[in-house]
């Protein structure tokens, strides 16, 4: 398997930079997920790595060799698309074997290699069928098989699961993770689905308007989002973000909001965006609460419930085991531990470094 390097990759469409100066290293054997909302440039970036789109600037390197201007078929990369892109008139076996026929391998070699890949993907009994005789999940496995059979330096996958229903998406997701582990394959995987990103990635790249917003292991981007954008993209519901002010008393203040940050008194005052995840809020008696609000709706998620509340003018979500014991119209007191509070600069949206008093005394 191979490592991929992107050096200042840029792609403009007219005056719009769909991808803007992206520098990334994908290590050999890594499962790198490009994550972000629709239009943030994920597919454009992947297509430049694949060679399907010419960059406006920058370079792509595969194992240190500059492949920026190498045609796609001569790059040692295999691409898996959302649409499967199978040949409808060819059997499963011939679809999987297609890249090998194009390479001129003998019939016996092709049969052996197709057999191996079909066993790996549980497709052995389906080799004589046409794509229209397969389920969506089976078709996507054939598309994966066609990529695997080439034994490429790396796999590029563009939303490969998005045409599958929820149950199939979960099982196919697990199959891809297992394949990645067995093959120690290098994978660059595009999705807008945060659950796919969190469960599959060794590292996540959050893209926002063509630029890298944060790169990190799933736990890192979830636990320490680098910006309001990342905080608001990950989580279900996403992190609550509230306009507030840090005061000299070492607490964060807002409308119906006063939460100690665990900071020593005497800190410089400043406006902030306060972030707190719905699962880190807990109910508490109103007189002791850091946030006081009114419940507007309660959603039953099965094992858990989400209560939507209004705290001042801010919409705040609370998530916890069912039943939360709340109903629309209830006055509710909430609180959160200092280690679960995130502060962001309201102008730049970037995370602010701050040190809880307890942690700094221990240091
Ligand atoms: P999605 O998840 O919806 O596929 P994406 O993150 O993959 O989105 P891209 O498809 O890479 O986003 O598009 C990034 C930006 O570039 C968008 O604003 C899109 O409209 C623009 N764009 C993409 N391809 C072209 C094109 N061929 N011509 C003009 N603009 C384009």
Produce the secondary structure layout.
Blueprint: E1 4-13, E2 16-26, E3 31-35, H1 42-50, E4 57-62, E5 65-66, E6 77-81, H2 92-103, H3 107-121, H4 136-148, E7 154-158, H5 166-183, E8 187-191, H6 194-200, E9 203-208, E10 211-216, H7 218-223, H8 228-233, E11 240-246, E12 251-254, E13 257-260, E14 270-276, E15 282-283, E16 291-300, E17 304-311, E18 314-321, E19 331-335, E20 341-344, H9 357-362
Parallel strand pairs: 3-8, 3-9, 6-7, 7-8
Antiparallel strand pairs: 1-2, 1-4, 4-5, 9-10, 11-12, 11-14, 12-13, 14-20, 15-19, 16-17, 16-19, 17-18
Helix pairs in contact: 2-3, 2-4, 3-4
The structure holds adenosine-5'-triphosphate.
Give an account of the 3D structure:
With 363 residues, the chain is an alpha+beta fold. The two termini are 43 Å apart. The protein is 25% helix and 33% strand. A hairpin with a 3-residue loop joins strand 16 and strand 17. It folds into two domains: 222 residues, Rossmann fold (3-Layer(aba) Sandwich), CATH 3.40.50.300; 129 residues, OB fold (Dihydrolipoamide Acetyltransferase, E2P) (Beta Barrel). The longest helix is centred in the middle third of the chain and has 18 residues. The relative contact order is 0.11. The strands form four sheets. A six-stranded mixed β-sheet has the order 6-7-8-3-9-10, sandwiched between helices. It has nine helices and 20 strands. The radius of gyration is 25 Å and the shape is elongated. It binds adenosine-5'-triphosphate. Adenosine-5'-triphosphate (ATP) binds next to strand 2 and helix 1.
């Amino acid at each position: 398997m191979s490592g991929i390097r992107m050096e200042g990759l840029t792609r403009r469409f007219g005056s719009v930079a769909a991808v803007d100066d992206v520098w990334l290293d994908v290590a050999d054997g890594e499962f790198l997920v490009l994550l972000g909302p629709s239009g943030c440039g994920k597919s454009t970036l992947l297509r430049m790595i694949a060679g399907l789109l010419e960059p406006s600037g920058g370079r792509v390197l595969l194992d240190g060799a500059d492949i920026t201007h190498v045609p796609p078929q001569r790059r040692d990369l295999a691409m898996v698309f959302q649409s499967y892109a199978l040949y409808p008139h060819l059997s499963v076996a011939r679809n999987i074997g297609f890249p090998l026929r194009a390479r001129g391998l003998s019939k016996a070699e092709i049969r052996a290699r197709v057999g191996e890949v079909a066993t790996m993907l549980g497709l052995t009994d389906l080799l004589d069928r046409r794509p229209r005789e397969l389920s969506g999940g089976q078709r996507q496995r054939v598309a994966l098989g066609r990529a695997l059979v080439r034994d490429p330096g790396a796999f590029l996958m563009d939303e490969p699961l998005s045409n599958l229903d929820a149950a199939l998406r979960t099982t196919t997701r697990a199959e891809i993770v297992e394949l990645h582990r067995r093959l120690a394959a290098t994978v660059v995987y595009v999705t807008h689905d945060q659950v796919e990103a969190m469960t599959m990635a060794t590292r996540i790249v959050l893209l926002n308007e063509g630029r890298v917003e944060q790169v990190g292991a799933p736990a890192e981007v979830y636990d320490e989002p680098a910006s309001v954008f990342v905080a608001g993209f990950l989580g279900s519901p996403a992190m609550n973000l509230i306009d507030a002010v840090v005061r000299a008393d070492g607490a964060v203040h807002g409308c119906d909001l006063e939460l100690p940050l665990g900071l020593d008194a005497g800190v410089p005052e400043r406006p902030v965006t306060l972030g707190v995840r719905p699962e880190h809020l807990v109910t508490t008696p109103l007189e002791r609460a850091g946030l006081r609000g009114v419940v507007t709706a309660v959603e039953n998620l099965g094992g858990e419930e989400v209560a939507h509340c209004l705290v001042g003018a801010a919409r705040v979500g609370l998530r916890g085991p069912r039943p939360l014991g709340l109903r629309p119209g209830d006055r509710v007191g909430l609180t959160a531990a200092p280690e679960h509070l995130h502060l962001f600069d309201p102008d730049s949206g970037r995370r602010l470094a701050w040190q809880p008093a307890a942690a700094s005394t221990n240091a």
